[in-house]
Amino acid sequence: QVQLVESGGGLVQAGDSLRLSCGASGRTYIFYAMGWFRQAPGKERDFVAGIRWSGGSTNYADSVKGRFTISRDNAKNTMSLQMNSLKPEDTAVYYCAAAGTYSPSYYTSNKYDYWGQGTQVTVSS
């Protein structure tokens, strides 16, 4: 069993920064990758950023490249998303996810097996 818990969401103004964290517990040794997704009202859940658990290679959605940074601490079983220069269009519920199986890529939600409950990020203009 795996549990993921997000924290760090909130209400900020455009241009501000926010840091999201995801704590993992349970069978974390089975992780191949972790990622952040977001879902705005009435929209699909979209990929934001991902990181390989071994090696630490990262990838980002084009909309957040250069503004967001994903990182992980294997020893502490945590993952973070540093979000800078936030825009109103970044407003969404942000979800932490973990993949328990190998895949050449982790850009889509169906690659992930475990999900957190989500944390709201609201960026006002």
Summarize the structure.
The protein has 125 residues and is mainly β. The chain has strands at residues 2-7, 10-13, 18-26, 33-39, 45-52, 58-60, 68-73, 78-83, 92-99, 114-115, 119-124. A hairpin with a 4-residue loop joins strand 7 (68-73) and strand 8.
How many separate helices?
0
Radius of gyration: 13 Å
Which term fits the overall shape?
globular
Give helix and strand order, one letter per element, not per position: EEEEEEEEEEE
- Detail the poorly predicted runs: none
Number of separate strands: 11
Beta-strand share of residues = over 45%
Distance between the termini: 40 Å
The secondary-structure class comes to: mainly beta
Strand count, sense and barrel status of the largest sheet are:
7 strands, mixed
Fraction of helical residues: under 10%
Please, what is the average pLDDT?
Answer: 95
What do you see in this structure?
It is a single chain. This protein is mostly beta strands. Helix content is 0%, strand content 52%. The protein contains no helices and 11 strands. The strands form 2 sheets. Strands 2, 4, 5, 6, 9, 10 and 11 form a 7-stranded mixed sheet that branches. A 4-stranded antiparallel sheet has the order 1-3-8-7, with no helix packed on it. A hairpin with a 5-residue loop joins strand 5 (45-52) and strand 6 (58-60). The model has no long low-confidence stretch (mean pLDDT 95).
